[in-house]
Amino acid sequence: MSFMLRRFLIVMMVWGLSGASLWSQGSREWRQVGMLTNDVSEGQTLLDVQWIAPGKAARLILLESPDGSLAEVRTIESIYGTHVVLKRRLENDFASGSSLYQQSTTGELNE
Predict the structure, then answer these.
(1) Of 45, 47, 63, 67, which is the most exposed, with the fewest CB atoms less than 10 Å away?
(2) What is the pTM of this model?
(3) Per-domain residue ranges of the chain
(4) DSSP summary character for residue 93
(5) Confidence (pLDDT) at 44
(6) Residues 108, 63: contact at Cβ < 8 Å?
(7) DSSP string covering 1-66, please?
């Protein structure tokens, strides 16, 4: 699958998952909240994270590889300090330094 097609499908998937909340909860945008401190492999649910901003459990998280060629959206089950537990297993490998993003409302961005 080409890089552009893969990126388009990821964007459409994220947009589709968040579309209903865009209408009901006001404007949201993705912001970086952290980076992976260790490599993670396909099938894992535990991430080690260096936080840039506080992450929030029970919300979607977008993982993006350092070169931007790979991304996945998952829901956070729980957060324990620098450890994030995902509700579903990863489908791909992600290298240390991969970025983590969460959606934030306009009000949260101003906090």
Answers:
(1) 67
(2) 0.70
(3) 3-109
(4) -
(5) 96
(6) no
(7) --HHHHHHHHHHHHHHHHHHHHHHS--EEEEEEEEESS-B-TT--EEEEEESS---TTSEEEEE-T
Which tokens belong to 3?
A: 């890089």
SS3 91: coil
Task: Return the half-sphere exposure (C-beta side, CA atoms, 13 A cut-off) of residue 72.
Answer: 19
Q: How far is CA 8 from CA 11, 18, 61, 75, in A?
A: 5, 15, 18, 20
**Percentage of the chain exceeding pLDDT 90:** 59
Over the chain, what is the mean pLDDT? 81
100 three-class SS: strand
pLDDT interval class at 1 (50, 70, 90): low
Query: Where does residue 58 rank: exposed (0-12), middle (13-18), buried (19+ CB within 10 A)?
Result: exposed
Q: Hunting for tokens 């929030």 — which residue is that?
A: 56
Mean pLDDT on 34-56:
95
